[in-house]
From TrEMBL:
Superkingdom of origin organism: Bacteria
Keyword list, A-Z: DNA-binding
Any single Pfam family the record assigns to this protein: TetR_C_16
DNA-binding region: 34-53
Entry keyword Coiled coil: no
PANTHER family: HTH-TYPE TRANSCRIPTIONAL REGULATOR RUTR, TRANSCRIPTIONAL REGULATORY PROTEIN
Name of this chain's protein: TetR/AcrR family transcriptional regulator
Gene3D superfamilies: Homeodomain-like, Tetracycline Repressor, domain 2
SUPFAM superfamilies, per the entry: Homeodomain-like, Tetracyclin repressor-like, C-terminal domain
Amino acid sequence: MPPIGRRPGSADTRAILLDTARKLFADNGYDRTSVRDIATAAGVDPALIRHYFGNKDGLFRATMGWPFDPAELAARIVDGDLEGIGERLARVFLALWDQPESRGRLEAILRGAATHEESATLARQFIQDQLYQLVAAALPGPDPELRIDLAMAQLLGIAYLRYILRVEPIASESIDNLATRVAPTITSHLIG
């Protein structure tokens, strides 16, 4: 006779919980996703979330694993002539959002940061302390962090319209066309 109830913890349970939580946080945001929702969707007892992650916050932090290496990403953006930096940034950014495996993580981060202060703090610290510093070092002139903020605000707006709200025609436009069209504005922000 098969066992009754939820599946017990196994070697794969932690990974299943992370994948399930990442999807639910991306779909619903932090506040509208409960430990019970995650456990039910994963087919496990909610106590396993406490066992592996401590609580919902611990699980969310674990799902915030960024889908890229900041040093590798920054190198792809800054390597090359300075006039092309805006287009490289736009292409790298949009390519990350366009890949299904990284899009789920990025959606979870964006939605979580919008509804949960700790998530916003974690995202902000990562972006400012890791990625921005590496790109800012390559930019001439004063206040490179502000200029990066302005460029990223433009790109995050595109990501929000394209991947979260799915507003047409931006949602179905090619990455090549989007990157080419926004590159002059991004470059202007970055190098003046």
